[in-house]
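#data-curation
PF: Archiving a pair of folding outputs for the training set. Convention for this channel: one message per protein, sequence first, structure tokens after, nothing in between. First:
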Amino acid sequence: MAISSIVGTERYLFWYQQMWDIRMFEDSVSDLLSRNAIRGASHLSAGQEAVPVGVMAALNSDDLITSTHRGHGHCYARGVVPGGQGKNRQDHLNRMLAELCGKETGYCRGRGGSMHIADVDGGNLGATGIVGGNLPIAVGAALASNILHRGQVVVSFFGDGAVNEGVFHESLNLASIWRLPVVFVCENNQYAMSVPWAYASSVPNAADRASSYNMPGLVVDGMDVEAVYEAAHEAIDRARRGGGPSLIEAKTYRWYGHSRSDPRVYRTREEEAEWKQRDPIRLFGAKLLNRGVTRNELEAAEENARTALAVAQDFAFQQSADPSPEDLLIGLYAPTSTDGGRSEQIAKKMASDGNCRQIAYWQAINEALQEEMKRDATVVLLGEDIGAYGGAYGATRGLLDQFGSERVRDTPISEAAIAGAAVGAAMNGLRPVMEIMYVDFTPLAMDQLANQGAKNRYMFGGKTSVPMVVRTEGGAGRGIAAQHSQSLEALWAHFPGLYVVMPSTPFDAKGLLKSAIRDNNPVMFIEHKLLYGTKGPVPETDYEIPLGVADVKRSGSHVTVLTYSRMVLQALAAAEQVARDDGISVEVIDLRTLKPLDRDTIRQSVEKTGRCVVVSEGYKTSGFSAELMAVVVEEAFYSLDRPIVRVAAKDVPVPVAEVLEQASIPQVDDIVKAIREVMA
């Protein structure tokens, strides 16, 4: 007996109403777009209603979804469930349309709009404007469900175009090897923008890809809501029972073009007419008539949808205000809870005691991870070679034995999937610390970190948080050439929503990593490869170093040196030399965190000395040194007695020959020269 055959007529009518609500919503949006009443891009899913309705009908109330740029139907169907357990239907439509209109009353307070609509409280972790971008986020949310024993299943919706993205393959592989409760639903509407599926794929069906990842792959008629429901019910039940992921391909069709500007010249009117003969609403309506539903009941559903959308338009345009420009930054960062630096001051006093133990930088990192994993069971580690191998520089050594493979997870070499999984896990209750072996490799994960993790909180109206840490290492000095030696901190400091931390000492490394793990925002934590073996005093006490607080590593009165990471050590050596040889008193400011940046300490130091040297191992052109110069000009321009002098890496890929490598990055002599120049 088919599963759908035991579904009652009342539930069928509910599905029918949902499908009409989605159709009317999309038709209304199309009309508003044609009248320029809605700004930006909207991608409509009219014709595809059977897929979200059929899939959502198989989910439990606490299950989760990730959506796509064509996500209005997903958002609506996930939010309204039978029996009155979900959102109020009219309020749901109101807030959805208000979001598309950029209103404060929208689900994302007008920050996300059509392509990024989210209803986090309703189990919708959000839509993405990046094709395939939410696939690994679903994997991460499912990982969190397993580790936290929540029993949730996560459904990831995506289009046929996403099947050719690398992140699709990385995500399916990761979900498969970890047997995660995730169901991948490909809405194959025949065209990836304008390119037909047959032109873009070497196999007839997207579901054929499933066999490569040892999971079931099923092709289903996406115009038949019963068929979709049956396939989804089976896959979701399998996932819930621990059977792992599945891939469902729903063959469907979109009535409208890819977007408003689409002339649809790539498909014929005959093709469109043929598909419209299989309109999912009409097909389902005919089935309901055969089950004894009256034509009046069917017509009432259509009229109810039309009326509801009229009310939603009135709400969006007549009753909803625009967001206030004064609130522009609200929701960008989650609130940070610290002890105000009290524990750091206590720890500093202990570190200054001559009896304080001396440990290496890598050990300080390891100790911070160990202590935070003991303190908080939601802290998990993800990355390549972090388990038995102990990490490329030993920072995770011994943690696998102590915490087990569920919390210390070796991953495939899949930077995008690792990062996306961390984002999804963070959004579903974990505090992942992921490792990317070299900062040079972080651009492979840029979409997940910069477009998803850094932006999701803001895009979704401040209604979610992404508490995760990306541990990586950068810098030159080991002769491993251009693709393993860069300093790319300026790249990551550029993105709003992401913090950047770069400690220079074992003491700072431990305290800052603890704060980063406890913070509710994504943090890029960059360690310098030449610092791992350096030793310094680190108390055994638990302490945090607040993010955004610089440290005066050496007090002085003649010139300020602003720097961070390994260049702090170089600057201190240079300061010692000019003090001895020239009588110049140098104040060395260790920024410690580039975002948030301690502008107050920078200003106070430059106001005191009147001179400034900026030192960075990053490339000179558009590097972070340029940002520091701008901050000095903005904060303390009238205190400057001389122009700022900058010391940075040469604009050349780091070479392997030692003499060339040393020439490409700042040396102590370069900093000495800059200090003497600014004092001239």
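PF: Second:
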Amino acid sequence: MASGRSSGSRPKFLPTSWVANLATGAPAMMSQTGKSRRRHVLAASLGMSAVALAIAGPVASQESLLPPGFNQAPTPSPVPAPKPTPTPAPPARPPVAPGAPPAGSDLPSPLETDDPETSPVDDVAEPMVRADLPPSSRRGLDRIGVLSSENGGMVVHAFGASGGHYLATLMRETQAPIASRWAAILLRRTLLSQVDTPSTINGADWTAARASLLLRMGEAGGARALVQSVDSDNFTPRLLNVALGAYMANADPGGLCPLVQQGIDRSDDKRWEVARSMCAAMAGEAGIAGSTIDRLRRREGNTIDILLAQRIVGAGAGGRRSVTVQWDDVDRLDGWRLGLATAAGLDIPARLTAPLDARMQAYRTTAAMTPIDARVAAARAAASIGVVSSRAYVDLLGLAMTSQDRGAETLDLAQTLRLAFAATKPADRVAAMQDIWGEDARGNAYGSYVMTARAAAALPVSGDHAAATDALIASMLTGGYDTAAARWARTVDEGSAAWAMIALADPRGGRLSSGDVGGFADDDDSANRLATQFFVAGLGGLNRIDDGNMTSWAEDLGIDLARQTRWTRAIDAAAERGEQASVAVLAGVGMQGRGWDNVSPLHLYHVVRALRRVGLEPEARMIAAEAIART
């Protein structure tokens, strides 16, 4: 999950279980099982997945989610005794099959169907009755999402009057990653929110556009949760294709099973046939699974994709096959291969995992079956794009300390983080954080700042750490600790990066003068004074600089604030209408790119200003400060 929102309240540093465990070395949670145990458990877990699906649909639960009385035999209503009548008895009628509706009912008899396997002349003792959810338990398509406004989501009308096809097109064409971690966090929250479906788009296609963007952002769990928010018989071909990616990004091939037949009938993607063989194996239908995978192997050959699927088939209930997967001829991983290999508990060569982008690294670190060392190694990139929060990162390191599978490098990192939290001397805590940050904490290494956010915010304010102040402030702000960072204002040098970040992030910050900006510009060593450009854009968007001074500095820095594009007009119009969700989506559109050098200061200005105008000033402040930290 992403880091918590910035707020004006003072952060609390009371000990919590995950920090206390890390500081003492006590177990933070049950340790991850060893590789051998994972492989022994795999067959049982895959075999049970079909049973779990039958019990509780997409997600198995310990308590029934069905309404009271469902799946229970109804109590028959008492039938009043017939009154005597002098009329003669009616002629005898043919016997009625058990379970048939009463005479005069509008319901068809169970035997009067178009099912070719059921004939009216068959001697049927117990007719088949279709079990389905009652209408009261079915979910509509008019409002879809997993986050309500009460638990962090947007209000239901947050997209306002914006058209569904227009918004879906924006989502489909947005290329991840988003340069700003905080903009990605806001966009993730928006896409997961329980919002009204625009009237111009089918609800399932609307869900598909949102879940697809979440997948490209590395948010595998969120994408799957959205897919599961739609009843399976409402799926469209677009949502079926997104479901393939969502379940495999979570290393969850069993989640595809309720959708397999629809996928085969309504999609051109041949991977649904592979999914059918795996689901048959999970259901204990070894014969069907074997014949299906054999047919695919004859048609496709012994490709890595078929071999990985065959590995799942062999591990299913009743599986009798064993296949060895060789990675020698494989030159890259995609989401499908990564998901299958992870679900099968295979060790993936480092030469294939090391080049993975941040999105795929996020898939790895959030998949429970990934080995603990690999999860820790992938967490830094995932944290840098907003998928892993500071708290989740610390929890992961706490788990690693107690795992029997963790290696020396992982243990060393966990112990260093423990020092960052619990060393007696503040200087030792800062030294431990500097060891974690390394030399360059921009790019993917920015995730190291996320790991230490709470430890940095808990540090006593002191002027003794001048060399580390910029990094300390940057680390605090990755966790949204704005008031903690603001307390360091009296210790930082005016014109420094730490000073600029505080000036932008402080919830009680005031306006700056032209001379204040000049002091920062004099020490700016970024290419083309990009940091100063971002500083002026952020101040302008937050209304923390006079219009005259902002215009003067914009001209000096070559920023044409008057320039209008389709995007600037769109985000300004959405802000004018007060549409928080539309502004958040357009902010993501305007901040596409792998680094902040791909972000225009003009775009930053419009993003920050629009967010402030629709009541999202905390996010606006964090985005503006992040621009300084990562430039």
